[in-house]
Design brief:
Helix content: 55-70%
Shape: elongated
Largest sheet: none
Number of strands: 0
Radius of gyration: 16 Å
Order of helices and strands: HHHHHH
Pfam families: Retrotran_gag_2
Number of domains: 1
Number of helices: 6
Oligomer: single chain
Distance between the termini: 11 Å
Length: 93
């Protein structure tokens, strides 16, 4: 999953857990572009996580606020020995 998020260039939004501050008065074009890009990355990361799980898991995570919180929930929920991981990966698919 990490590789998938990296390929879509949104892993940074999950890994770094940055906040996107509101734009100040009279922002430059570069500031507006960076602001929009960072907000979009956070939303794309969340959408990718939603799309990667089964409907039953989706209902558990759909009210979680950020991609980082969703990632932490999934890591906590699906850790274990290799046999358990394989079964839980199959549930994600």
């Amino acid at each position: 999953m990490i590789v998938h998020l990296q390929a879509l260039d949104v892993w940074e939004a999950v890994e770094e857990n940055y906040e996107v501050p509101p734009l100040g008065a009279n922002p430059t074009m570069a500031q507006m572009k960076l602001h929009k890009e960072r907000k979009t990355r956070k939303a794309k990361a969340k959408a990718c996580l939603f799309a990667a799980v089964s409907p039953s898991i989706f209902f558990k995570i759909m009210k979680i606020g950020s991609a980082v919180e969703i990632w932490e929930y999934l890591k906590g929920e699906y850790k274990g020995d290799e046999r358990i991981k394989n079964k839980q990966v199959m549930n994600l698919i």
